[in-house]
Amino acid sequence: MSDIRSSATILLIQEINQLEVLMLKRYQGDDILSGAMMFPGGKLETHDETDDWAELVIGWASTPKSERGLRIAAIREAFEETGIMLGQNVKNNAPEAETLNIRKAIEAGDLSFYDYVKTQNITLDLQALTLFSRWQTPPTIGRRFDTHFYLAPAPKGQTPVADGREAVKTEWVTPQNALNLAANKQRKLLFPTRMNLKMLGESNGLHTAVNQARTRKIHKVEPKVEQRGDDRYLVLDPKFGYGNVEELI
Question: Which of 32, 131, 152, 167 has the greatest CB tally within 10 Å of its CB?
Answer without folding.
Answer: 152
